[in-house]
Design brief:
Elements (H helix, E strand, L loop, with lengths): L5 H29 L6 H8 L3 H6 L1 H44 L1
Helix pairs in contact: 1-2
Length: 103
């Protein structure tokens, strides 16, 4: 019984739980990306089955989620910009054709 070390056992248990949580978060993010759903603290928390507090508590999770949120936001903005440019080009082309017909 003298070989039992409570501190060491708790350290190992904590390390195991932390690794399991990391795997859950990674799996949740991959799943959300493949479904093309928004990646934010609420969605990752629900998908992974862990609390939002845990996601905010550990910088590696917080930074990862913030990075994916920024990427999604930037991609959305770029898509909107491209679409706006197409609409503008179509408008100008139509105006040009109208002017040609008047001549």
């Amino acid at each position: 019984m003298s070989n039992f070390n409570r501190k060491e056992q708790l350290k190992q248990l904590h390390a195991k739980r932390k690794q399991e949580t990391k795997l859950k978060v990674d799996k949740a993010v991959k799943s959300l990306k493949s479904k093309k759903e928004n990646i934010n603290f609420n969605s990752v928390s629900k998908e992974a089955g862990i609390s939002k507090t845990t996601l905010y508590k550990y910088p590696e999770y917080k930074n990862m989620i913030n990075l994916y949120r920024k990427q999604q936001r930037d991609s959305y903005i770029q898509g909107e910009t491209d679409r706006s440019q197409e609409v503008w080009n179509d408008y100008l082309k139509n105006q040009h054709e109208k002017l040609k017909r008047r001549e």
